[in-house]
Amino acid sequence: MARAKLELVREGTRSETARAVLTEAVLRAAAILEISQGELGKILGISAASVSRMAAGKYLLDPEGKEWQLGALFVRLFRSLDSITGGSEEHARRWLRSANTGLQGTPVAMLREIDSFVRVVQYLDASRARV
To answer: Which residues contact 124 (CB under 8 A, 6 or more apart)?
Structure first.
């Protein structure tokens, strides 16, 4: 019985750690890309107030919610963009906010809808594979 409780505590700790790590990664990527809290909320499908609580350390992404998957996808987008731009934050920000003929839109605007968000990430992944 005590062993089962210990495993639940360990699992809970791992879960909280994972939540904190992904939440922090999302916030850092958004800061580097100069994504506002309002924009980030729309990307993750949560309110700007929730993003504000995230920034204050009072809210962690929920692994059971859509926000978790979108947060992981956002970090994936950031990592691909970072790789393609050679770590240049300025180039990454410029790419994200510039019209893209291959995507037929502006990437940052496309992040608000799941299907176009996935398309942007796939485009970056394909571009990254060529590097």
So the answer is: 77, 80, 81, 84
pTM of the entire predicted model: 0.86
Tokens of 28: 């850092």
Residues 6+ apart with CB under 8 A from 27: 54, 55
If residue 66 lies in a helix (H) or strand (E), which one and from where to where? helix 66-84
Q: Is 116 exposed, middle or buried (0-12, 13-18, 19+ CB in 10 A)?
A: middle
Tell me, what amino acid is at 46? I
Give the SS3 label for residue 89: helix
Q: Which residues, in sequence order, are CB contacts of 108 under 8 Å at separation 6+?
A: 35, 39, 96, 97
Q: DSSP letters along 107-126, please?
A: HHHHTTSHHHHHHHHHHHHH
Q: Which two tokens stand for residue 115?
A: 């299907």
Q: What is the pLDDT of residues 26-47, one digit of tens each?
A: 999 999 999 999 999 999 999 9
Task: Please choose, from the candidates 85, 45, 51, the residue with its C-alpha nearest in 3D space to the C-alpha of residue 65.
Answer: 45
